[in-house]
Design goal:
The chain is an alpha+beta fold. It has 2 domains: 47 residues; 53 residues, no CATH class. It is 33% helix and 8% strand. The chain is built from 4 helices and 2 strands. It has a two-stranded antiparallel sheet. The longest helix has 12 residues.
């Protein structure tokens, strides 16, 4: 039976691996597979302030930006709209369209859009 050896990562390697998780569209699981390391270990490193990437280093928070919005005139609705009805229609990259009716939580909607855009 082969004996498992424990790899030792330098602080610089840990920082580099943690920084890679902040790239847009890249998940911790993808980085873990790239380095053949358990994703939980990377999450542990990300909680450690000494390895956590700074916001200036290209993290997801630093990469936030506004998306272009286009307001288009729509043909009149044939059915009467209720005064309490709220509608939002969002067109995502790739031609996908999302329609939200009623009340919503803006934070949850923002996370959903980020997840669908990734």
């Amino acid at each position: 039976m082969a004996r498992r050896t424990r790899r030792l990562w330098t602080d610089e390697e840990n920082r580099s691996i943690c920084l890679q998780t902040t790239a847009p569209g890249v998940s911790v699981a993808q980085v873990a597979l790239r380095y053949t390391v358990n994703a939980n270990l990377i999450f542990k490193w990300l909680r450690d302030p000494k390895y956590r990437p700074s916001p200036e280093a290209g993290s997801k928070e630093a990469g936030l930006r506004f998306l272009p919005v286009e307001i288009v005139k729509q043909a009149p609705v044939t059915r009467p709209a209720l005064a309490a009805e709220n509608h939002i229609e969002i067109e995502l990259a790739g031609g996908h369209r999302m329609r939200i009716s009623g009340s919503y939580d803006p934070e949850v909607l923002a996370r959903l859009i980020r997840g669908l855009s990734a």
